[in-house]
Write a structure and sequence with these properties.
- It contains no helices and 5 strands.
- It is mainly beta.
- It has a single domain (2-84), classed as Beta Barrel (OB fold (Dihydrolipoamide Acetyltransferase, E2P)).
- It has a 5-stranded mixed β-barrel with strand order 1-2-3-5-4.
- A hairpin with a 6-residue loop joins strand 2 (21-32) and strand 3.
- The radius of gyration is 12 Å and the shape is globular.
- It starts with a strand and ends in a 5-residue tail after the last strand.
Length: 85
């Protein structure tokens, strides 16, 4: 699934274990492009940073979706679309 979103918040230069490998990632808060009131948390895996800043549009390829039912939040593990790098 491809998400077309607007970058609301960005925290670069983080690392975490994904499938047993330590990989860089950027933690983001994103808003849906056509409904900005809907915001989600996303981790862009495999990059330390990317050139787009807060307020810019980005496209993300969703690798995994996690839902926390208690807090009703959704978190996406994503890869940045190749034309966005």
């Amino acid at each position: 699934m491809i998400l077309e979103v607007i970058l609301v918040e960005k925290v670069p230069h983080l690392t975490a274990s994904f499938n047993g490998q330590i990989l860089p990632y950027v933690r983001c808060v994103v808003a849906r492009k056509f409904n900005p009131d809907i915001q989600s948390s996303a981790r862009v895996i495999g990059v330390e940073d990317f050139p787009q800043g807060v307020g810019d549009e980005i496209r993300l390829n969703v690798l995994r979706t996690t839902t926390d039912r208690k807090t009703a939040t959704v978190c996406f593990d994503c890869a940045l679309e190749p034309d966005m790098k």
